[in-house]
Amino acid sequence: MNGAETLVSTLTDQDVDICFANPGTSEMHFLAALGGNPRMRSVLCLFEGVATGAADGWYRMKDKPASTLLHLGPGLANGLANIHNAKRASSGMVNIIGEHSTSHLKYDPPLTSDIEGLARPLSHWVRRAESAESIAWDTTQAVAKASEHPGQIATLILPGDSSWQQVSAAPVLPAPVAARRKAPSSERVEHVARVLRSGEPTLIILANKATRGGALEKAGRVAAATGARLGSQFFTARIERGAGFVPLLRIPYAVPQAMAFLKDFKHIITVETREPVAFFAYPDKPSLLKAEGTMVHELVEADEDSELAFDMLLQALGATGVSAIVQPRIRTEVPTGALNPTSIAHALAAAMPEQCILVDESLTTGRESIGLTLGAQPHDLINNMGGSIGYATPVATGAALACPDRRVFCMVGDGSAMYTIQSLWTQARENLNVTTIIFANNTYAILKAEYANMGAGTPGERALSMIDIDRPRIDWQAMAKSMGVPSVAVDSAEGFYRAIANSTREPGPCLIEVKL
Amino acid sequence: MNGAETLVSTLTDQDVDICFANPGTSEMHFLAALGGNPRMRSVLCLFEGVATGAADGWYRMKDKPASTLLHLGPGLANGLANIHNAKRASSGMVNIIGEHSTSHLKYDPPLTSDIEGLARPLSHWVRRAESAESIAWDTTQAVAKASEHPGQIATLILPGDSSWQQVSAAPVLPAPVAARRKAPSSERVEHVARVLRSGEPTLIILANKATRGGALEKAGRVAAATGARLGSQFFTARIERGAGFVPLLRIPYAVPQAMAFLKDFKHIITVETREPVAFFAYPDKPSLLKAEGTMVHELVEADEDSELAFDMLLQALGATGVSAIVQPRIRTEVPTGALNPTSIAHALAAAMPEQCILVDESLTTGRESIGLTLGAQPHDLINNMGGSIGYATPVATGAALACPDRRVFCMVGDGSAMYTIQSLWTQARENLNVTTIIFANNTYAILKAEYANMGAGTPGERALSMIDIDRPRIDWQAMAKSMGVPSVAVDSAEGFYRAIANSTREPGPCLIEVKL
Questions:
Q1: pLDDT (mean) for B112-134
Q2: Using an 8 Å Cβ cutoff, are A51 and A76 in contact?
Q3: Where is the Thiamine pyrophosphate enzyme N-terminal TPP-binding domain positioned along the sequence (chains A, B) (predicted)?
Q4: Cβ–Cβ below 8 Å for A28 and B114
Q5: Which of A46, B77, B103, B163 could bond B4 through an S-S bridge, CB–CB 3.0 to 4.6 Å?
Q6: Which of residues 254-293 of A touch B (CB under 8 A)?
């Protein structure tokens, strides 16, 4: 076996069995190794940001890392924005970055760059595979790092010669370390129990792995036992949500609304997250959103086990027998008439099939709509944690590959969709069950609001022209057609409902343009 | 004036009068300042790689830097691949990177990243504008750096508070330093004169500013006087080319052909470049392309003045009266029949109007075609110096803005075009005279050849599927329509000729799909 073959088989031996790839010349041996290993699924992406975003989506639904294959420093650079988003979402991933062979580097050929330098700001772990002999070891460590809780970004740089050299001996591997979540400190648990027993208004903010499964259910029991409210940040990596799940209050995005929401809580308890912070700074607004005098108590640190923490807390509260209050199913009438945030939400809630996945990057429209889907069929909701737009269409792609039996709804603004629109092609190629919903308001609408929020006054005509994207107006049906995705445009609530429902009837991708 | 207004007026005071922008919330004051300064042209791009590539194209045609506006670390990251290409092309640019306000950074909000860390690997100069008071000074230095010869990448990080704070006093500016090219050493000139007098077979390789204007013409006189051949690397930032210009031999891309081309030269003389190096390393091929025993002599270093060097060389050779031999006009018949590299080249050569600009990123098709356009009407040829694909459509955008009276032909493979296809939207918005020619072979054709060159054998079906991009086949006419660009598809040589000629008749962009 050569180095590339060893790398791929080490990945699959450790259950990393998908590779989102945009290969180049220096990765031909790796491509051969991908092709030669039937345990590895290779997914071609036409732009690297699609590959890294898809790996993020895969992790969110699978809780295990995918791999990516990127072409030298610039290929990595193209994937960095979605690596940033994945890092902020605590998604693990293993990036393989092709590199010139070692002997060639000293001649500084055109594609040479400082790959370590580019990787380090957004990776938890960076290593160069110095030889084919070390690749199995390096790969094992990369997978172990990516598989930690919270997930980590591991970047392995693969020089051409390490790829094509033969491996002489059976690889030596580090001893496997099971990724375990740390136990929270019992002092912290007891302190939080005292806070909760006080009966003072308390918000418990859940994040990362705490917004799902046993942790969420047990948090619900704590809430039922104590009267504390359960909430989430505005953005969360993944929430199990809808009928039958413990509901979470969402802290609003805008600073005044978030402050109004938080002002009556005397205590904030954090679980795998920190106290609420404004997304951006504004000249006349604070960065921290809690009221003066509100106390913040950390229950679960990012690398700890939330479910265990809630078990301990229920014990400390003597509330192990209490049941959680779950969200009842709210049946929504099919709306008719004009499209607005409410009718959009109602159409969505009425049409969403059980176990669907919502990937939300509809900054303006969705912000007002998504709360109204809380009583829909049970589903997962995925948000952008890093704030770099262009995350939704790739993440939806990865989520659909991770969960082939579930329909993914990718709700995305027109401005955001244009960053990584190449995702549609991979969705068509792999016949993925993704319904892309484009909210086409022909503007970076969020910036219009933010312009005033920032105290920059009323935008003049020239500044406004830099926020509007309606000259030319993007033809979304033509865009979908160009990459082999069927599409429909809607301009009424009933049309939108029908389009969503229709999109679930047959496998494969489609695009709905919502004309706003 | 606030910091943002000071920044924009400092840019325009120093003749940086265009900004390729993809703004976000933290840049609203900058947007207001752009809108408020009529000397600044703001060009909206839907993806940051379009902005940085357009700045590169602007520099190539104007020899002065453009500015870009990017949104925090991830926005910069999206622009890095084309910053890499610009850096390798010695194109100067001033990147303004929006950043959280200083007081907000300590809360590590979602979009926070190590912007300096991301910028440094691909910038010559990085600075954070620590306050509104220092902005005029910082901006002046950024422009001075970007304007050096060779052009430099200057990256100025702009925190929100530096942007919105008022500037209290008239700005203090560093003393202006005229960007001067260094004189080459007379020892080197005399040494090269001795080499040339020897009469031994010699290749003079010109690059960067030496492939145009006075330097190119004087290099032609040296060649005429001495019998030396004039050549270029396979990729050059910009060549003045066609009838009436001194022609350059192009060193082939593939290693065996390049070695065959170089093997008979006893001497290689380099001008603003280095000796030829293979683009990639291959297991059984050398990195350096010259024959054993060939001697390399540096005449002009990257920061020196080539025209002055050739003046000195002509003096040393006693050849100041010799005339250059220039390329005669070769009139090409309009080809008919099948599309192939020759008929494509002939159609292009026959249809190219005087003073057009060719931006070439047609890795497979163009590699064989472009040599046959040497006798066309005078034009400029622009290549990708950094090897990161996705450079052509943005560079064509910037070149068209720089030269509104000239038609730009962007020759691009289908695979490459998909990286930064958002360029079409900016071309439509600004009604730019760009004819985008998509060579649609539905594959990363270059990788098919490279797979074998790499010694990876014959690709199996699974590996091959990662090189083909024909499932689904991209519908280029729909793609053009989606972003408001008219298009035509051609499948014959005469149809291609007609489409090129038609595209020059009216202002504005169009797209030609060449079905291969």
A1: 97
A2: no
A3: 1-106
A4: no
A5: B163
A6: 277-281, 283, 287-288
Question: How far is Cα of residue A181 from the mean position of the Cα atoms in its chain?
Answer: 21
- Quote the CA–CA distance of B484 and A421 in Å, as a whole number: 16
User: For the whole model, what pTM was predicted?
Assistant: 0.98
- Reading the block at residue A179, the tokens are 């990724």
| Closest CA in chain A for residue B90 | A110
In Å, what is the CA distance from A88 to each residue of A84, A92, B108, B122? 6, 10, 11, 24
**Domains of chain A by range and CATH?**
3-164 (3.40.50.970), 186-317 (3.40.50.1220), 341-515 (3.40.50.970)
pLDDT in tens, A284-333: 999 999 999 999 999 999 999 999 999 999 999 999 999 999 999 999 99
pLDDT at A465: 86
Closest CA to B516 of B398, B394, B329, B344: B344
CA distances from A217 to A91, A273, A303, A304, A412 (A): 22, 18, 20, 17, 30
A137 close contact with B: CB closer than 8 A: no
Q: What is the mean pLDDT of chain B?
A: 95
CB contact under 8 A, A467 and B31: yes
DSSP state letters, A41-65: EEEE-SSHHHHHHHHHHHHHHHSS-
Alpha helices in B300-436 (DSSP H): 306-317, 341-351, 365-369, 392-402, 414-417, 423-429
Residue pointed to by tokens 């950043």: B99
d(CA A114, CA A74): 10
Query: Cβ(B398)–Cβ(B55) under 8 Å?
Result: yes
A509 upstream amide cis, omega within 30 of 0: no
The bridge status of strand A41-44 relative to strand A18-21 is parallel
Task: Identify which of A357, A345, A331, A311 has the alpha carbon closest to the alpha carbon of residue A504.
Answer: A357
Model confidence at A448: pLDDT above 90? no
Give the total residue count for chain B: 516
Q: Which of A415, A405, A413 is nearest to A436 (CA)?
A: A413
Contact residues on chain B for A423, CB-CB shorter than 8 A = none
Q: What's the CA gap between B390 and B396, in Å, rounded?
A: 11
pLDDT in tens, B228-268: 999 999 999 999 999 999 999 999 999 999 999 999 999 99
Mean pLDDT, residues B170-199:
89
Q: Which two tokens stand for residue B237?
A: 């930032």
Nearest residue of B to residue A33 by CA position? B463
Q: Which residue of B has its CA nearest to A82?
A: B74
Q: Residue A415 is encoded by which pair of tokens?
A: 């401005």
